[in-house]
Amino acid sequence: MSLIQNINKVFDHRIRLGIMSALMVNESVDFNTLKELLAVTDGNLASHIKALEKANYITITKQFIGKKTNTKYRVSETGKKAFIKHVDALEKIINHKKR
User: Fold this and answer.
1) Secondary structure letter of residue 99 according to DSSP
2) For the packed helices 14-24 and 42-54, what is the interaxial angle rounded to 10 degrees?
3) 79 pLDDT exceeds 70?
4) CB atoms < 10 A from the CB of 23, how many?
5) Which pTM does this prediction carry?
6) What Å distances lie between residue 74 and 4, 10, 21, 33, CA to CA?
7) Residue whose C-alpha is closest to residue 20's, from 38, 41, 39
8) Which of 19, 22, 23, 87 is most buried, taking the most CB atoms under 10 A from its CB?
9) Any idea what DSSP says for residue 74?
10) CB contact set of 37 (below 8 Å; sequence gap of 6+)
11) How many CA atoms lie within 13 A of 92 on its CB side?
């Protein structure tokens, strides 16, 4: 079995890795918080969110607070399982010793 077999291509990009990391430790996170936390532009964040949503790894909830839209993101069960599997694979690579 290959050491990189369970590395998930969806999480290859540092921004997607950051989004998922933030969502794994918070019930939900809004767009502006993610943008500040990851220090990215609106467009950059939106494109990575779209990729995670397409993979069914996150869910999106939009609501209005006053007249402003508030968009919140949560990690889905599918996303949790995939991310844990990915992190486990990274740990195996890090801890792998040559024989």
Assistant:
1) -
2) 70
3) yes
4) 23
5) 0.89
6) 27, 17, 11, 13
7) 38
8) 19
9) E
10) 18, 22, 29
11) 13
Give the total residue count for the chain.
99
Question: Do the Cβ atoms of 21 and 34 come closer than 8 Å?
Answer: no
pLDDT in tens, 19-74: 999 999 999 999 999 999 999 999 999 999 999 999 999 999 998 888 888 899 99
Token pair belonging to 10: 């969806």
* Domain 10-94 in this protein, CATH class: mainly alpha
Q: Where are the domains of the chain?
A: 10-94
Q: In what order do the strands lie in the sheet with 68-75?
A: 29-30, 68-75, 58-65
Average pLDDT for 74-89: 96
H/E element holding 69? Answer: strand 68-75
Residues in Cβ contact with 84 at an 8 Å cutoff, skipping those fewer than 6 apart: none
Q: Read off the amino acid at residue 12.
A: D
